[in-house]
Amino acid sequence: MYEWFLNSHLLLAAMALLAIWRHLPTKTAGAKFLNIGICQWAIISAVHWSLFARRNFVFGRPFATAVVTPLSSTKPMLDMPASEAYPTLLQVDITVPRPWGVRAGQHVFLSIPGLGIFTGLRGHPFVIAWWDRDRSGLTISILVSSKNGFTRELSRNANKTFRAFIDGPFGIPHGFGAYGTVVMIATGIGIAGHMPYLKDLISGYNSCEVRTRRILLIWQIQNEGDCLSFTWQNSTN
Questions:
Q1: Angle at which helices 2-23 and 29-56 pack, to 10 degrees?
Q2: How far apart are the C-alpha atoms of 206 and 233, rounded to whole Å?
Q3: What value, to the nearest 5°, has the Cα angle with vertex 61 and ends 59 and 66?
Q4: Do 210 and 201 form a contact (C-beta atoms < 8 A)?
Q5: pLDDT value at position 233?
Q6: CA of 197: how far to CAs of 128, 129, 205, 206, 217, in Å?
Q7: Among 62, 89, 120, 158, which one has the highest count of C-beta atoms within 10 angstroms of its own C-beta?
Q8: How confident is the model over 119-177, as pLDDT tens digits?
Q9: CA-CA distance, 88 to 70, in Å (whole number)?
């Protein structure tokens, strides 16, 4: 429903703005407030797209690349035969042209034009599950559950590399190191949101920077195949 909601939201917003503009006299206080609002929106949009360009366009460096890797066995979608089954759980590794200090709780909007004009150009939000730094730069990884629209196109193009664009990062990180016991509850792919915090708490415990001594993780999964094993570099047991 994401694409439908986003497109309908933009359409209704444009219709409401046009209706207000048509019904307001030009020399009233209401018209002045409308013009101020339009100017504010234009300034915010200009700043947003400037930050987007800074994140994705770096002189002398290639664009971001996204590598789609299936993590689960394939099974048919609801509207396709079994012979055209696609993986339902994917890992997407994105190598970004301009690194930043990634923190737990952040998310990005991912666009992949190669998946289609109407599907791939739209930015879709995904939580950063983990990240890695090496000589080539920063690589962030996200987990994707294949449903419809953008995620279904990703599953159809598993084991491929695409040119990508990211918008962000967004999100307000939270610190849980002040608590002696931390309880985390996740369902299915929702574990991706907890993994960066788990890594930070374990790293902080080993370096004596947090008070946390116990972590209780409750993870509900539909079947054993959904339980994945991830490898974290520079992490300890």
A1: 150
A2: 15
A3: 130
A4: yes
A5: 36
A6: 11, 10, 12, 14, 12
A7: 120
A8: 777 889 999 999 998 877 899 999 988 888 888 888 888 888 899 999 989 998 888 99
A9: 8
b or e along 186-212 (b: 16 or more beta carbons within 10 Å of the residue's beta carbon)? beebebbbbbbbbbbbbebbeeeebeb
Tokens of 58: 């770096």
Q: Is 7 helix (H, G, I), strand (E, B) or coil?
A: helix
Contact 187, 220 (CB under 8 A): yes
How open is the CA angle 123-99-89, to the nearest 5 degrees?
45
Answer with the residue of higher pLDDT: 28 or 207.
207
Q: What is the pLDDT of residues 96-127, one digit of tens each?
A: 999 898 999 999 999 998 888 777 778 899 99
- Which residue do the tokens 């002040």 mark? 178
The pair phi, psi for residue 33, each rounded to 5°, is: -65, -35
Q: Are 181 and 140 in contact (CB under 8 A)?
A: no
